[in-house]
Write a structure and sequence with these properties.
31% of the residues lie in helices and 22% in strands. With 475 residues, the protein is α+β, with helices and mostly antiparallel strands. Strand 10 and strand 11 form a beta hairpin. It starts with 10 loop residues before the first strand and ends with a helix.
Length: 475
């Protein structure tokens, strides 16, 4: 039974029983599982910053999978509907059927336009989905085109809504493109449909190294396409028209995969595991908790695409396990502090810009990452603190459950304790929780600043530092 097959909108089958579509997902089992995960990381689930985390995570996962349809169920799919504007659950066919409008085409033999044969493209639809291999969110730039037929066109906003329905579930880029394409083809009945997706998956570094590789790539990219009707063959001439209209916006997607392509899994959790064996052993209770979350979301953890997903997710979480400060800083800093505490006044400013960091939001258990800029005064004629030491400090405070404000303060206070007090720290970060929750603010970025000692009252010094960051950003 396909996603667009007819069915009563008011009722759905759940395990063979007809139920009303107005129910909300029971998040209590997810909240309990999140508590197990937090405790497995050595955290106190009753501390102030974590008390509401289980509820927040459950809500975010519920929103992020609101378009979920169980695949391969003998008794039919489960589709959930929530009337709230932030969390609708409905069939793709219901979306487009009420938005098909009559539009005549050109006279026979004249050409192609209007409701018969004229190519229509909606570009740059920003979506997000959850990777079924590691359960982390990934970003999607979606481009949809279709060729009308039957003297009918569809409301353009409905193309975005259909794509969103299929994005809001555990996904793989190619299947997402195929499902959106098939849904639109069955719902609109056009002469052809084409879907191109440009996907970005956050790529965490190997945290076991104890440092960040300067050549590390922050994102894994994948471009995929799918076509029906006139677009079924990627060699069809109409694909050239489609791609040309994308290029008007500077979008180059020549290197795309199709449903017939044989490509390795794009998820970094799988692609990196073969080359670098992971030493982190997942805790059985945590894996069981992650598996229960999948079940609570209506997924089947035994389907082949999800085999090992709970295990990979827990291995990733364990990178942020709570650790004692001394275990990390002794090897990096001790023995250097005395030499970094001069008795005379500091005369020169030193800057270390674009120190990469990665962290985990303690409110939603979603990653955030970015760069830090650190400035301080040091005694003329002496050597400034090594960049590697600052990287180690940033690395330590980053790889744990955090909020950006606290991370900024902790780094600034630690550096200040080594250098005598005059320190400025600016942190710039992109937060997955700003993308993959109801707010869905793709492209947003958060900046925080800490001013200690002289930088808190010396505007000239502060502005000089900030100008240096700006010059680096624009160069």
């Amino acid at each position: 039974m396909g996603a667009l097959d007819d069915g009563r909108f008011g009722l759905e089958l759940v395990d063979g029983v007809s139920v009303e579509v107005g129910f909300e997902l029971d998040t209590l089992p997810i909240e309990e599982a999140v508590k197990v995960l937090l405790q497995g990381l050595g955290e106190d689930i009753n501390r102030e910053g974590l008390r509401k985390t289980p509820a927040r995570v459950a809500k975010a996962l519920s929103e992020g999978t609101r378009g979920l349809v169980l695949r391969g169920q003998e008794k039919g799919p489960i589709e959930r509907w929530n009337a709230d504007s932030n969390s609708y659950r409905q069939k793709a066919k219901d979306i487009v059927q009420g938005a098909l409008f009559p539009e005549v085409g050109l006279d026979d033999g004249v050409g192609h336009a209007g409701g018969v044969g004229g190519l229509v493209i909606v570009r740059d639809l920003d979506l997000f989905s959850y990777c079924e291999s590691c359960l982390l969110p990934f970003q999607v730039k979606c481009h949809v085109g279709y060729v009308p037929s039957g003297q009918r066109v569809v409301g353009l906003s409905k193309l975005s809504r259909v794509a969103d329905v299929f994005a809001k579930r555990l996904q793989d880029p190619q299947r997402l493109a195929d499902e959106v394409c098939s849904a639109l083809n069955n719902g609109i009945k056009p002469a052809g449909v084409a879907v191109v997706l440009q996907c970005l998956h956050i790529h965490f570094p190997n945290l076991e190294l104890g440092y960040l590789d300067s050549n590390h790539q922050e994102w894994v990219k994948a471009s995929v396409c799918s076509g029906e009707g006139l677009f079924e063959s990627t060699k069809a001439a109409i694909w050239s028209d489609f791609l040309s209209l994308l290029k008007f916006r500077g979008i180059n997607v020549e290197k795309t995969c199709t449903r017939d392509s044989t490509v390795p899994c794009w998820c970094p959790s799988q692609s990196s595991s073969t080359s670098t064996p992971c030493k982190i052993e997942p805790v059985h209770q945590m894996v069981a908790a992650a598996t229960s979350i999948l079940k609570s979301l209506g997924e089947d953890p035994s389907r082949k695409e999800l085999l090992g997903s709970a295990d990979r997710y827990v291995r990733w979480l364990k990178n942020f396990e709570k650790a004692e400060l001394e275990l990390m800083l002794n090897g990096f800093v001790c023995g250097k502090m005395d030499s970094l505490q001069p008795n005379c006044s500091k005369e020169e400013m030193h800057l270390e810009l674009n120190l990469a960091f990665w962290s985990l939001c303690e409110h939603h258990l979603l990653p955030f990452h970015g760069v830090m800029h650190i400035g301080y005064f040091y005694t003329k004629g002496t050597n400034p603190i090594a960049r590697s030491i600052l990287e180690s400090i940033v690395h330590f405070y980053g790889f744990k459950l955090q909020v950006q404000e606290r991370l900024t303060r902790q780094v600034s206070e630690t550096v200040s304790s080594l250098l005598g007090g005059d320190v400025i720290v600016v942190v710039e970060a992109s937060h997955s929780c700003m993308v993959s929750r109801g707010i869905e603010k793709l492209g947003s970025n958060t900046a925080t600043m800490a001013l200690l000692g002289r930088f808190s009252f010396d505007d000239a010094a502060k502005n000089m530092f900030l100008q240096s960051i700006q010059n680096t950003s624009t160069s």
